[in-house]
Amino acid sequence: MIRIAIIGSGPTGIYTLKGLVGSAVPISITVFEAESDPGKGTPYHPDINDRAMLSNIASIELPVICESLVQWLRRQTDADLQRLLINRDAINEREFYPRVVLGEFLQAQFLRLVASGQQKGHVVDVRARERVVDIALQTDDVRVTVQQLDGLRTEFAFDHVVMATGHDWPENIEVKPGYFVSPWPAQALKQIGNCRVGILGTSLSGIDALITVATAHGAFYLDPAGQLQFQASADNENFHVTMMSRKGLLPEADFYCEIPYIEPLFCTNEAIDALLATGRHNLLDDIFDLFKQEMIAADPAYAAKIGLSMLTVETVAPAYFAAREHTDPFVWAAQNLAEAEQNKKNRYTVQWRYAILRMHEVIARAIPQLDDTDLDRFHKHFKTVFVDDYATVPHASIARLLALHRAGILDIIALGANYTVSTDGVESGVVLMHHGKTVEYEAFIDATGQHAMSAVDIPFPTLIEQGVVRKATTPQAQPVISAEIAESTVRTGGIDLDHAFRPKFEDNLCNHLYCAAISFLLHKLPFVQGITSAHDIGNVVSAAILSNIEQAHAGRFQMSA
């Protein structure tokens, strides 16, 4: 049998497994999972997340594995739903559920895939609590070194290896007393005492950190009018949290829209493909023209309001954020939440928001072909508009923020671009300096989320020694002198991968290693985030592997004939 290893059993590993078990040829699949509960995935594991942490993807957006999340929830017993804190009458495809609920759902789907694969004649071996510590490419296969809990190391050889390692969080997040470099594992944050807490980051990761700390010092409740409130415990009079980011803005509430997406009119796959077909790399301004056409057609009133026709790649984000930056963030959040709740009730779509959401996946197709200048412009100026639009958060998350603010426990500050965070001179926490002010926080959490990683961050030393993983190549912007100008490239970040996520190299080694770890893809695929991206990556990788297997099987059949 063809031997395949999947490193990691989170969403990317699960969708890869789903594709592989569809093979018509019997294959051997080994899934390595460092945790004790294969199938849950780090972002949804109960040992990593607080039960109050919400996922930011509704059931309707989850690509089906064996069944939808709503179908799975509805067939759970009343006792199981009570354990998950889910009201049966409230189960809905548009609702958002705690991360740990998604973890149980994903694990149930994973186990069904394993059973299905075995029933189809495949060998599926799930190895929990076994961590892959090294990978080496050989001439005909890929060697994997696995370490068990007792420290014993074992080597395996596979025909194909999929790195579906997902998120990469440090095991010890409190690197200095009171200074936490990540909100996960969340249990560590529960130890933060009755003090001033700073949280760097106002996205869902920051909100997760906030809610984890807050629920250790009090509780949310509904008042007689049905409004969510927060009551701090009696001995927590000094507990206060300040969230902070460069702009000091909160994410907006999830907005209602039609799913599957309606096709754009101007910024289409065909229009992007036509730009790519020119072979040029200075495409960003042409892409922005398509963006403007789509926005003006979708919502001319909004386009006129922000002066879109006169904007550029460099000026669109300031215009997009201007109204929010000049409004108190909690006032904006309250108004935005009320609007989002009413629109959801009425099934009304705000067209400019929907247009941006639909365009981000289309425009993402062109990012890998941009030259270094346009790639830098995109990341610095244009990307933030799309990220803000698709990274909306559950309505309950905004309601909790407002409740904490009403209780006098939460405020938000805008840091600007020039600020410093230092642990020098304090026993616990940090000293924050911004706008000429110095503020001490006894506890401080960096909740800016998973950062883009590059070739030097690969956790497998032999791969680095072999030189087969390198920073991605990007065409270098050059003045147009003649049509025959030689194209040069620079290495800008991420990992240099082909269309099937395999590292590019010239050595005579097996090229059946697939880098499906999202953190290494963000440089050229900036919108690769969450379960929908895990689905897309899993489909690409499993299809590439099955294609190779079919070719090899056909070759052996011809030789035997």
How would you explain this protein's 3D organization?
It is a single chain. By secondary structure, the protein is α/β, with parallel strands linked by helices. It has 3 domains: about 1-55 and about 105-170 and about 450-560, FAD/NAD(P)-binding domain (3-Layer(bba) Sandwich); about 175-250 and about 410-445, FAD/NAD(P)-binding domain (3-Layer(bba) Sandwich), CATH 3.50.50.60; about 270-390, no CATH class. Helix content is about 35%, strand content about 20%. It has 15 helices and 21 strands. Strands 8-9-18-10-13-14 form a 6-stranded mixed beta sheet. A 5-stranded parallel beta sheet has the order 3-2-1-7-21, with helices on one face. A 3-stranded antiparallel beta sheet has the order 4-5-6.
Structural key phrases:
35% helix; 561 residues; FAD/NAD(P)-binding domain; globular; alpha/beta; 15 helices; five-stranded parallel β-sheet; 19% strand
| Named CATH topology of the largest domain | FAD/NAD(P)-binding domain
Q: Please, what is the CATH homologous superfamily of the largest domain?
A: FAD/NAD(P)-binding domain
Number of domains: 3
List low-pLDDT spans: none
Distance between the termini: 19 Å
Could you give a short account of the major beta sheet?
6 strands, mixed
Strand content is 15-25%
Number of helices: 15
Taken from the alpha-carbon principal axes, the silhouette is globular
CATH class of the largest domain: Alpha Beta
Protein name: FAD-dependent urate hydroxylase HpyO/Asp monooxygenase CreE-like FAD/NAD(P)-binding domain-containing protein
Domain FAD-dependent urate hydroxylase HpyO/Asp monooxygenase CreE-like FAD/NAD(P)-binding: 5-167
Organism: Pararhizobium antarcticum
Pfam families: NAD_binding_9 (PF13454)
